[in-house]
Amino acid sequence: MLFSSGPLTIVYGLVLFVVAKTIYNLYLHPLRSYPGPWLARATRWYYSYYVKIGLLPQKTKELHDQYGPCVRIAPDELSYNTAEAWEDICGHRTGQRTESFEKDLTFFPPAPNGVDSIIVAKDDVHRRFRRLLSHPMSDKALGSQQEIITGYVDQLIHELRQRSEKSEVVDMVRWFNFTSFDILGDLAFGESFGCLGSGVMHPWIELIFTSIKSVMDMQIIRRVPGLFSLILAIAGLQQKQDLQEQFMFCQKKARERYTKETTRPDFMTYILRATEEKGMTPEEIEANAQILIMAGSETTASALSGTLFYLLKNPMAMQKLRREIHASFQTEAEITMRSTQSMEYLHAVLQEAMRVYPPVPCTFPRTTPPGGAMVCGKFVPGGYIVGVNQLAAMTSEKNFKDPLNFIPERWCGDERYQEDSRKAYQPFSYGPRNCLGKNLAYAEMRLVLTRLLWNFEFDLLEESKDWHAKQKVWMMWDKGDLKVRLKPLRY
């Protein structure tokens, strides 16, 4: 008898399965012709390892630099870094392209209440959600929300001025998080998290950062089949608990707000105006409230942190922006969300910061439609995972000249950068599922940055001078302290 029954047989069987699967993935798989490291083409564990250690976007960029515009980063997944890929994967379905690339549900599961949010909803439901959520994020709504947002920026300046008078060391990452979460808490739930007033992160926000890592851990678990998945699921019970606890708090705050009678111009007021058949159910409101908070606050704080860091590392850009600010305003009271819209160099600074330091540096994967589709001129069979990696696309020398340098002038018509592939720059994603909060994010960032530079000079501490280089990524940047000393400016 070649194999006896029992544990040894199971071991032999597993070994044979792994060997057979590896041979299939390398030599027989429908994606076998796409380039990539052999270990990534052979097994999903290569991808999972870099997810776990927080270096997947950095590794993906490295692979694109080595292999080109399309890389097979897992047996069933292709990564792209071109403008053409954005259009093919995420663009509007027109002409012969009628089937959508749906979100990869392994990466984007439903909310813990079992209801799809705008992130994962199918096309018809997504269109309904998008129509409802577009109203509270329109330019008109921003005008009515300006008083709310400005109040929190006033509070930020007040708190930082107090600390600057004492020459305290300040971690700007924390203060940007305090500001963005307080603003989004007020706009989504009708009350802030109280971070700016207390100078302390709300426990629920701390849980959000924990849950983001848990989401990535659970993605690894969901992608591993069979027995391994069972083992990892047991190990991932804490991650499940973190996600459930985080959602329950959000659910409670959403219920408190949508049962309250008020006409204040926050998100919920606009959402609740819809008729019953065109509106959202309470469960849909709760699922989407979680997305609004997580997507709208941490990303804005990351963008502001990255912008300030790169300005401090590039004094000439900082001086040029300060000159534009003082040429535009005679008093601080003139600085508003609307008045900062026309500041060309400010906008260029924000664009360039989000290029070298994209707030969401990872890939948001899609799946090819059942009948397959053309991506970058090559047919990809149905049911496989594809996506554009933000970090790889926006720091590729194929898309941008001097890709790793912070050069706002590239967005101001500088002839040296006329050949840049600007359509590869999509920090808010692309197509009918792009980020609805773009206008709000830009308005908040313009106001915060302009008010900060009007009020303070910044001295970047030595320990934070390689701030960006140290960071890892679990969907979003795991930012370390951005420590500065503030010098108050007098007028």
UniProtKB/TrEMBL annotation:
GO biological process, alphabetically ordered: aflatoxin biosynthetic process
UniProt keyword Oxidoreductase, yes or no: yes
Protein name, per record: Cytochrome P450
InterPro entries (UniProt xref): Cyt_P450, Cyt_P450_CS, Cyt_P450_E_grp-I, Cyt_P450_sf, Cytochrome_P450_monoxygenase
Gene Ontology molecular function: heme binding; iron ion binding; monooxygenase activity; oxidoreductase activity, acting on paired donors, with incorporation or reduction of molecular oxygen
PROSITE patterns assigned: CYTOCHROME_P450 (PS00086)
Residues that bind heme: C435
Protein family (similarity comment): Belongs to the cytochrome P450 family.
Taxonomic path: Eukaryota, Fungi, Dikarya, Ascomycota, Pezizomycotina
One family name in Pfam for this protein: p450
Keywords, alphabetical: Heme, Iron, Metal-binding, Monooxygenase, Oxidoreductase
Keyword Cytoplasm: no
Cofactor(s) needed for function: heme
